[in-house]
Amino acid sequence: MSVDVAVEQDLAAHIAAVRERVAAAAHAVGRNRDQITIVAVSKTVDRPAVDAAYALGLRHFGENRVQDAARKFATPLPPDATLHLIGHLQSNKTRPAATLFDIVESVDRLSLIEGLELAAERHGSRLPVLLQVNVAREPQKAGCTLEDAAALMDRLVHSAWLEPRGLMTMAPLVADMEETRPVFAGLRVLRDALRRQHPDRDLGVLSMGMSNDYPVAIEEGATTVRIGRAIFGD
Ligand SMILES: *Cc1c(COP(=O)(O)O)cnc(C)c1O
Questions:
Q1: How many structural domains does the chain have?
Q2: Number of other CB atoms surrounding residue 158 within 10 Å
Q3: Is the pTM of this model over 0.90?
Q4: DSSP letter at 57?
Q5: CA-based, 20 to 30 A from 162: which of 37, 90, 121, 195?
């Protein structure tokens, strides 16, 4: 099954527009567009749309539910694709998560670290992870506090089976994307501090920015943007 021609044309136009905006935002602050990974968040679409996006050159895909992703990717993506778990992970889903995903961006508590560690060990391969931080302190959102981040990162750095790569956050949904700037800057400041604490580790990833606000996130240093609606439509 594949998507129809009109859908594919829309997708191609959306991807081209996102790439252009990523390049413009990077250029505005003297960064290279190649430093920024676009994760296409495919949580609202089915496999044919993912395959169409892959055919159009995208290689990173994001899902927020383990069960949906397990169904969607029962036939694995080609080996050069990377699957990101970006949503809240329940502790009883760590085993399928560690098997299916190439990176878990939503690690935010000790019990989850312990569960994922066991799952990665059973799977027999080290699992790349990001520490999710609730910079904006929104009560309804996942993510550890800024205060807890250093201790959790310390734990991750000493893990035999998890491989921390950096940080992830979600900004509040606001009408004017400029309002998200302090949140993204806050995650960058935290990342820089954690890097100084662990100079021998590669903790450079800053996963921040979604359809509403990714240009600001890139200006503030995002290395990964997670984009759903701007690619796949509403
Ligand atoms: C859905 C989602 C996104 C993408 O959001 P859009 O507004 O569709 O770009 C990014 N990150 C997370 C964690 C999400 O759940």
A1: 1
A2: 10
A3: yes
A4: T
A5: 37
